[in-house]
C-alpha cells in the first residue's frame, strides 16, 4: 500500500562560492497516517533542508534537488506543476517553524493571520474567518481567545505565539504536519506543553507528524519512530523505545549521553566531542569517523550503508553489533 508520504533517495545540493555543498545525500523514509516520526540531528545534519524540500520552500537557487522523489499519496511533489504544489501547502502538507515571532507578521492581528488561511483557501469572508480563528485559538488552548483574536503577535508570550503558529498550521486540516524545532526557543515547561499539544492534535486529526529536533529529550513521549541524521544521511532509524534502550549507532549513543538528566543534577554532560564535518569537505568513509570512539581503519575508507539490523531497526555503521552490546 502507498504511504502517506514517501521520501525516496533524496539528494539536495547548495552551490556556494567554495563549491557544491551536499546537504542531503540519499535520504529515504516514509510516514503513515497517524504516525509521528522524529528526525534528529545537530544543526547542519540536513534535517531542516529535508523538511524544506518536502514543503517546496528550499531557497532555490542556490538550493537544488540533485535527485530522488517525494511522494505524497503516491504523487511525486518534485515533478508536479508549481501551482498545484503551492495549493497543497496548508490543506495537505503544513509546517511550523522554530521562531514564531519572525514567522508572524507584526503589523496584523493574530486572528487576521489565522483567518487568512480560510479567506485564501476557502474563500471565507472576514467575519467568518475571524470566527474560525477564535475556534482554533481555543483549540490550541489560548485563554480568552475571543478577546485576544485582534491582538498583535508582540502581545503574546513565546509559548502563546507558538500556539498561534500551530493554529495556523492545522487550520486546513493537513494530512502531514512538519514541525521544525517547534520548542527550541521556549523554556522547558512550555516545551513540554507544546509537545503535548502537538501530540493531542496529531491524534485528534490523525495527521502524519514529522518532528525535527536536535534534542532527543523532547521527543521521547511523542514520537513513534526516530530517524537520526548526520552529515546529510540517515545513520539510524528505529522505534523510539529501541533507540532509548539500546542505540546501534555511535552517534545516537553520543546524543543519548548528552541529554541532561533531571535525576542526576549537577552531573557533567558528556557531549560528543568535535564538530560535524563541513558539507564542502566530507571525510572519506564514514562521515562520523573523526568523532567516533568505535572507529577503525575500514571506517576511514568505506561508507557504511543504512542496513537492517533487526525488526524495524536500521543502522549505518560497520560495527552496529558491537555498539548495541557495548
Ligand atoms: Fe564509527 Fe565506524 Fe560506525 Fe562510522 S562506521 S559510526 S566511524 S564505528
Ligand atoms: Mg534547522
UniProtKB/TrEMBL annotation:
Keyword Cell membrane: yes
Pfam families attached to this UniProt entry: ABC_tran, oligo_HPY
Entry-linked PROSITE patterns: ABC_TRANSPORTER_1 (PS00211), ABC_TRANSPORTER_2 (PS50893)
Gene Ontology MF term list: ATP binding; ATP hydrolysis activity
Highest taxon of the lineage: Bacteria
Coiled-coil residues: none
Subcellular location: Cell membrane
GO terms of biological process kind: peptide transport
Bilayer topology annotation: Peripheral membrane protein
An example Gene Ontology CC term for this record: plasma membrane
Recorded family membership: Belongs to the ABC transporter superfamily.
Name of this chain's protein: Oligopeptide transport system ATP-binding protein
Biological source species: Janibacter alkaliphilus
